[in-house]
Amino acid sequence: MHLINDLALILIVAGVTTLIFKRLRQPLILGYILAGFLTGPHMPYTPTVGEVPSIQLWSEIGVIFIMFTLGLEFSFKKIVKMGVGPIIAALCIIFFMITLGSFIGRLFGWSSMNSLFLGGMVAMSSTTVIYKALGELGLRQQKFAGVVLSVLILEDILGILLMVILSAMAAVGKLEGMQLVSSLAKLGFFLILWFVVGIWVVPQVLRRNSKWIGRETLLVASVGLCFLMVTLAEEAGYSSALGAFMMGSILAETNEAETIESLVSPVKDLFGAIFFVSVGMLVDPSVLVQYWLPIISIIAVILIGQTVFGTFSFILSGQSLKVAMQCGFSLTQIGEFSFILATLGVSLGVTSDFLYPVVVAVSIITTFTTPYMIKAATPAYEYVEKHLPKLLAKRLTAETNAWNSGDSESATNLWRKMISDLLVSTVAYSVLAAAVVGICFSTVLPFCRGIFGHWVGNAVCGLISILAVSIMLRPVVMKKFHSEEVKMWKRNRAWHSLTIFWLTVVARFSLATFAIWYIIEFLSPARWYWHVLIAAMIVCLICIERFGKRQNILAKWIKYFSIRMERIFRQNFRQREVKAREKRPGYENTLLRHDVHLSELSLPEDSDWGGKTLQELRFGKQDGVMIAAIIRGNGRINIPDGHTRLFPGDRLEVLGDDESLDSMAQRMNAEVSPITPNDRKHRLRLERLRIGKNSPFVGRHIYTSGIRDVFQCMLVGFESKAEGNETLELATANRIIQAGDIIWVVGEEEGLKLLLLANIGKEEKTE
To answer: Which structural domain range is residue 52 located in?
Structure first.
């Protein structure tokens, strides 16, 4: 009962504070933090929660849902399409900010773990705050906004990695070089395994049961999968946040991703609110007063560090000076991920009590300053450009795609793509093979030994393990073996390319041989060199389909299953991309390189543009944009002409640069029909009237009575009493109105008044 009372208290207070902050046009996160402070143990003048540990448990569930929805918004394919530029920017920003934050912590004499956690917190900008600020300022459709959001996604991914590293460091007190490599390798193994198996299983299950999965079932199933992955992550020694993020990223590749996101969003909002309220509970005013100098110093580090090093990082990634400064000035705050890192430090017991409230105070202040920093980017750019040397300014103001530009030599591009494909497939199949071996040794081997005895059980388990692993190892060896690239090199007698390719085949053959050798070496007492020979022969057996004129049935069977498995994975992995490709034009990325980009704008329901043609609105002359397509419901109008009319709710695909798109967005949001108090008078009312003997409606048909044409009302029906029961007979146009009839009429207030006045003096209105 205490928990219910506590939840009622914090949710009611949170509702009041967020309403206040909503009216002040401030982020709701600040309202939640204030609610936590008011209901927390450090505020003696207001009611306080009784069971803080229970609230902390609910806040951990909030972290799970926050990370789950973050994973739903994430896509590995999006990261690949971004190119290397955003990755370079994100890595540089995190490196610089972690270094600055750790230095500030050391400067104040804090411990190494406090300083390191502080560095991680100041490096993580708030996706929620930035996204909201860009929307309120009307800048979300500009080019730099897309660049910022791409880097924020990468920062969140790197933040997950940072959580794993900090957790490992907290366990041993320090992290050596080899230990770091081992931790990263272990993390990579589990991430690849979970992602590959999840993509292979989850979308297939959802697709095959789509007829029976409704919205409620989909919500229950997706949340259940989320907590399943959380359990697996904790069993593997990782945080629950990592498991939730991984399941979100797996479900993000399904066609149901948008539906799942909309279904989970209210649940995330509820538990996320509790999480941020619990953050506010840890704010101790006495600590803030005591640590006012570190708070001011950390704020200065974030504001100055992100503007300077953030701008430098974006320039290094290939952006122009203007875009780089706009991006750098936008990242000058910390938010939800910093709170998650702070919660991690508290749960691990490696950070001091003062660090949490200090970070919360810094987050509140930097959240307030975010809109002003974003607005200051353009004036700062104009000042810097004016005072830079002309040659340097010319180079910095031009966008350079050095990190994303392809090699002009087709052979180099061909090799790059082939090596990339081979590396990805080899790593993925090797991880699957290692997982299969681990499962066989941990479950199948004890079972076989229990039934057949030790050595016979070893032999049976070895046979099962080799057959299962063969499905994974055959693609490792034979990938690209009969590809078009190899055929082209053979036709052109490109001996250099063929030699390198055969070297990759030898390397992959050796890797497959090692996997089989490991199984045999673990189960057999013979000499290791016999095991190597047997392993090599087995790899040849599973890869070579013909021995002379005889077909190798085993190799064909293994090939069939490996191709089928990979085909299912590719189909699942690309299903959302194929669906999105049908909706989005293919020329968007090409236009981006020429400083012209595509933006989608939704026409407000109360827009003055509704019903007007494109020719009347003159977008080209007035705003300098072009309408590429109009999306209306499930249909599209591509390349609309000037006579095409717009309707409220239409989504417009607009081509233009930042300034023109900004001009159109501002004009679209300004030219709307405001709701006035008089609009409320147009609501319909229902009235009951008795027709008197002298009523002007007596003896008339309904369609000639003028009730609809003159009074703008609708006669619904006639009241009648049959066997003591009141019924309503629906009206028809040819029905004649008789004296004494009781009619029910629907209309606006003014029309009903006129209708009553027509009967006044002739008939009294009955209730």
So the answer is: 2-381
- Phi, psi angles (nearest 5°) of residue 151: -65, -35
Within a domain: 590: no
Confidence band of 594 (pLDDT split at 50, 70, 90): very low
Structural domains counted in the chain = 4
Q: What is the DSSP string of 284-324?
A: -HHHHHHTHHHHHHHHHHHHHHIIIIIHHHHHHTT--HHHH
> Residues 177-209: pLDDT tens digits?
666 677 777 777 887 888 888 888 888 888 888
Statement: the pTM of the whole predicted model exceeds 0.85: no
The verdict on residue 206 lying in a domain is yes
Cα distance between residue 248 and residue 568, in whole Å: 20
Q: Which two tokens stand for residue 299?
A: 């704020």
Query: What count of Cα atoms within 13 Å lies in the side-chain half-sphere of residue 76?
Result: 16
**pLDDT for position 764:** 47
User: Average pLDDT of 724-745?
Assistant: 82
Instruction: Please state, in angstroms and as integers, the Cα–Cα distance from residue 407 to each residue in 287, 381, 392, 413, 417, following that order.
Output: 56, 32, 26, 6, 11
Read off the CATH number of the domain in which 196 is found. Answer: 1.20.1530.20
Identify the CA nearest to 470 among candidates 364, 367, 543: 543
If we measure between CA atoms, which residue out of 223, 201, 212 comes closest to residue 268?
Answer: 223
Distance between CA atoms of 226 and 679, rounded to whole angstroms? Answer: 47
In whole angstroms, how far apart are CA 657 and each of 603, 624, 660, 669?
Answer: 19, 9, 6, 18
Candidates 345, 255, 101, 285; CA nearest to 582 is: 255
Helix/strand/coil for 627: strand
CATH code of 704's domain: 3.30.70.1450
| Beta pairing partners, 727 | 720
The pairing of strands 651-656 and 685-690 is: unpaired
Cβ(323)–Cβ(314) under 8 Å? yes
Can you give the length of the chain in residues? 767
Q: How far apart are CA 80 and CA 355, in angstroms?
A: 36
Give the model confidence (pLDDT) of 206-233 as tens digits: 888 877 888 888 889 999 999 998 898 8
Model pLDDT, residue 77: 66
**Token duo for residue 66:** 């926050």
> Tell me, what's the pLDDT at 302?
92
Element (H, E) at 747: strand 742-747
Q: Are residues 162 and 208 in the same domain?
A: yes
Q: Are residues 96 and 224 in the same domain?
A: yes
Cα-based torsion angle of the residue sequence 388, 393, 397, 398 in order, rounded to the nearest 10 degrees: -170
570 and 708 assigned to the same domain: no
Does the pLDDT of residue 173 top 80, yes or no? no
Both tokens of 526, joined, read 């013979």
